[in-house]
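Quick one: sequence plus flavin-adenine dinucleotide SMILES, need structure tokens.
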Amino acid sequence: MAFGLLKFGLRRTYRARGILPPRPALKSSYDVVIIGAGGHGLAAAHHLAKDHGITEVAVLDKGYLAGGNTARNTAIVRSNYLTPEGVRFYDEAMQLWRGLSHELGLNLMLSNRGHLTLAHSDAALRTMRWRAEVNKHQGVDSELIDPGEIRKLCPQLDLSDEARWPILGALYHPPGATARHDAVAWGYAHEASRRGVEIHEHTEVTGFRREGSRVTAVETDRGTIHCGRVLQAVAGNSTRVGDMVGLRMPIRTVPLQACVSVPIMPVIDPIIVSGSLHTYIWQTARGELVMGGSADPYPGYTTRSTLDFKEGLMAHAMELFPFLGEVRLNRQWAGMTDMTPDFSPIMGKTPLDNYYIDAGWGTWGFKATPVCGKRMAETVANDRAPEIIHAFDMGRFARFDQVGERGAASVGH
Amino acid sequence: MKLMNCPLNGWRNIGEFVYGGEVRPAPGADADTETWADWVFMVDNQAGVVREWWFHAPTSYWFIAERDTANDTLIRTYPAAEIFTERVEFASGEKSS
Ligand SMILES: Cc1cc2nc3c(=O)[nH]c(=O)nc-3n(C[C@H](O)[C@H](O)[C@H](O)COP(=O)(O)OP(=O)(O)OC[C@H]3O[C@@H](n4cnc5c(N)ncnc54)[C@H](O)[C@@H]3O)c2cc1C
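Reply:
Sure thing.
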């Protein structure tokens, strides 16, 4: 990669590299049809082609490449979760993130800035300690630190006792990072299509044909395609597509909003999260402050921004960083997130023979993109879910066997 | 600011209300575990006009709202008594203790 960069820098003329070949005609049949060209669907396509030699694959998206939550998330990646199942899974993602720019031949700008989850109450401190212990047990770098150490990492935080909710400590996760979300999708799309996978933008799945518990064809607004296997990875549309094929889901679709400020000089180094204040904030390389909070208070299929969200978020962000009172907002947006009752994903096989699901990624699925791609490809190729995703199978609700990730996911990211 | 029409208190700020889930008939106390799991965890989650429980927090008042989830428009709000015309007996099965 370094050599490639040097060669590129010394060249006199630059040829723009297209991410995708022009949209091909839709064939009448594919070995695997992937619904959703977000990061998850594209990563699965990449791994099907690269690890399993399956290249008769079509990735369909009703919109443009990665225009869903992949384009809308706030790009935080970390693995300091609360449940052992969760920590193990997200940590595999962290390992993949480290080599991903190299694997995809595209600079994903993985920026390893460290991640602080603030505690403003004894109860929050106890949860942070609990998380730190589970993390360490799984080999994840994570520890509880006091306000003195927080000050060294982020002196701009209001650490005084006069604050409305004084900061008592923080869970510090040095590997916490951010990555360039769009590039992640482009990188996977480019690599997958280079190996023969077809990516069909503006191709909406409108229904399915079934014979008993087998899905025989996928209907789209560009025609019907016969399929060997189908992977659904449609985030906020999980229920809609699930309804078409006849799968009932424990998912509520809830809008999640975020915003960025105008660019300012570099002032905040780590990622700062406060669960109690429903606020998180980090600064991009070009100086914008990226901010978000918890999901909207009630479900819906809309991506509108609301005044309530901004009022609440700004008030809380200013409690952490009083200087923000001087900073203007630049942009705001929302995405539709697929929330599960236990704040954990739904991955693996379904009651249908040849239909696989990757859903329930709610407000936390960007960081999991590489591991979902790898593990879902394995599931589809072998018709068997690997051990690392067993805990997340769709049947867990009927067994009252949830993976309670609530403590770790109270703030949306 | 978005407003909601509370059947008891009239138009109020949406921030005063709490969403309480889809209106669906509860299984009988003697229903099997699978039916209960479905009722507890699975949701219809439709894009379109749905019927939901809402709660006006300052006055502890539960009511029903019809809302279009595809564009977040409130269509109608009314007292639960409009649908629940008979008393619901939750303890109809055998007592376990
Ligand atoms: C504001 C916000 C902030 C977030 N911040 C973070 C964060 O900091 N860290 C983190 O880890 N996660 C975060 N998330 C969550 C994360 O964005 C998602 O979990 C993740 O991007 C899901 O990826 P995906 O590929 O499954 O979905 P998407 O990128 O949404 O892709 C799904 C695709 O399916 C397509 N589709 C839907 N229906 C159909 C159909 N019928 N036919 C064909 N195609 C269809 C859609 O057009 C879409 O492109 C955030 C989410 C939001 C909204």
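Residues A 35-41, 60-63, 66-70, 72-76, 204-205, 233-235, 237, 241, 256, 258, 292, 335, 337, 361, 363-367, 413 surround flavin-adenine dinucleotide (CB under 6 Å). Chain A has two domains: 24-73+182-250+342-408, 112-174+253-339.
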